[in-house]
Amino acid sequence: MYKKDIYTILSNEPLTPAVYRMVLEGDTQYITRSGQFINIELEGKFLRRPISVSDYNDTTITIIYKVVGSGTEQMREMQPGKKLDILTGLGNGFSTDNNAQRPLLVGGGVGVPPLYNLCKRLISEGKKPSVILGFNTESELFYFDEFKALGVDVYCSTADGSVGTKGFVTDAIRENSVEFDYLYTCGPLPMLKALYAATEVDGEYSFEERMGCGFGACMGCTCKTKYGNKRICKDGPVLKRDEIVW
Amino acid sequence: MVKHFDTSVELCGVKLINPVIPASGTFGFGREFAEYYDLDCLGAISFKGTTRDARFGNPTPRIAECSAGLINSVGLQNPGIDKVIAEELPHLREIFHNPIVANISGFSLEEYEECCAKIDKEDQVEIIEVNVSCPNVHNGGMSFGTQPESAAEVTRRVKAVTTKPVFIKLSPNVTDIVSIARACEEAGADGICLINTLLGMRIDTMRRKPVIANKMGGFSGDAIFPVAVRMVYQVANACNIPVMGCGGVSSASDVIEMMMAGATAVQVGAANLKNPYAAKEIIEALPKEMERLGIERLSDIIGIVK
């Protein structure tokens, strides 16, 4: 189930020069899984802006977004107290209903946020997740300490080597000899492809596509899978490894 | 005493509790919206454009945002007529009990015939809407709707194999909409639906490439409303068959404006994608808007502007 409602901004602050964290207050009962997203109405924009949920509790939703265009530029300027019209509970999200005991969470850039609530959930289920975060350079890094504070092993890679392993997330897996029995990942398409090729364990991959409605009506974001056409917004954004067609 | 406002209209003998119909391609087969509200408030539903074979549609990205609208190049993604009849239609009937408009598209005269003949046999369907105006598929769709002769030919062939009211959905991407609508009427069409989307394009100036993989797509949303009102007005005045107005409708006021231009029923399209409650909210706002404008019976104002 999903719902449209009005939410109030509690805070909106930068984590890096381009990445912001916004905390929203309102009804969160339709968010049921890590990796789901919300769709935000913005003044003067015809389409809503889909942003993944980084964390949530009974009364608040935390989103982390990168300023990439006029919509997110508008969001960056928003002050606490402002009210937003938002659809919540969208997308399938990650499943933790499996036997994995040592899952690996790999996030690339602005793909990192949805893994945060997932990490908390896995820990609460008694599992031992480890985390790899990939960025271009140190100034773009965020949430390394937040994941650390959850008490899990956290590694990072940067393309220029300014912090962590120099190279890609796949290099960080090798360099740190990370052992895992399941993979959860979200990030740019080349990263997802590289992880798919470099690993053999089962897992779940969260995809991105340009959306119209965000709730399955317009068929704008359809992709092909081994089990037929799927809408990234409604049947995804998370696809299981065995159904992915690159 | 609370004043009663009569919102009912009649389309070729099909009674609608109100003139508001979610437009094909913006409402799927109702499933997603049924999670938001009780669909029985809707006058009718026009379901997702259906072809003979299942289609994936065009490559992604196939959505581009615009000022007051969006461009889509979905390209008639649908499960194919047989699956629609076997799976979607029975489910739609469970969640919706008012008239269903079957939107049919094709790539050949034979395909239109075959699909319309099949859907005509389904009790659940009250009106057949023949789409000769999809801008997103090559060698079909719109090519039938851009010439009076070919639009008339589709109409004749479909009318010969069907018993239910047939509306022809026309494209605005033509030089003379009236001649095409009249050709359809002369060929036996029971009604006209217009407009489909306007062919549009956006460019990502940073990447120096079209935003949409297919380069061009159909532009819809608030921005096209004046074009739709104009074409509804022209066609309603030139034809003697009812018109379903469509294009950029996003308020009760828009519904009334389009009816004054000549529409008997009004479809709501892109607005559903921005706000899933759009059609419901428009219907709920109708009585108040009627009161404001001194309208007691909505059917009284159809084509009142001359």
What can you tell me about this protein's structure?
The complex is a heterodimer of chains A (246) and B (306). Chain A has 246 residues and is of the alpha/beta class. Chain A contains five helices and 15 strands. Helix content of chain A is 16%, strand content 35%. In chain A, the strands form three sheets. A seven-stranded mixed sheet of chain A has the order 10-9-8-7-11-12-15, sandwiched between helices. Chain A has a six-stranded antiparallel β-barrel with strand order 1-2-5-4-3-6. In chain A, β8 (130-135), α3 (144-148) and β9 (153-158) form a beta-alpha-beta unit. The longest helix of chain A has 11 residues, at 114-124. In chain A, 47% of the residues are buried. Chain B is of the alpha/beta class and 306 residues long. An eight-stranded parallel sheet of chain B has the order 3-16-15-10-9-8-7-4. The longest helix of chain B is centred in the last third of the chain and has 16 residues, at 278-293. Chain B has nine helices and 16 strands. At the A-B interface, β13 of A face α1, β5, β6 and α8 of B.
In short:
The complex is a heterodimer of chains A (246) and B (306). By secondary structure, chain A is of the alpha/beta class. In chain A, 16% of the residues lie in helices and 35% in strands.
Task: Present the secondary structure layout.
The complex is a heterodimer of chains A (246) and B (306).
Chain A: E1 3-14, E2 19-25, E3 37-40, E4 49-56, E5 60-66, H1 70-76, E6 83-90, E7 103-108, H2 114-124, E8 130-135, H3 144-148, E9 153-158, E10 165-166, H4 169-175, E11 182-186, H5 189-198, E12 203-206, E13 222-225, E14 228-231, E15 238-240
Parallel strand pairs in A: 7-8, 7-11, 8-9, 9-10, 11-12
Antiparallel strand pairs in A: 1-2, 1-6, 2-5, 3-4, 3-6, 4-5, 12-15, 13-14
Chain B: E1 9-11, E2 14-16, E3 20-22, H1 31-34, E4 45-46, E5 63-66, E6 69-72, H2 81-95, E7 100-105, H3 109-120, E8 125-131, H4 148-160, E9 166-169, H5 177-186, E10 191-194, E11 198-201, E12 203-204, E13 209-210, E14 216-220, H6 225-238, E15 243-246, H7 252-261, E16 263-268, H8 271-274, H9 278-293
Helix pairs in contact in B: 3-4, 4-5, 5-6, 6-7, 7-9
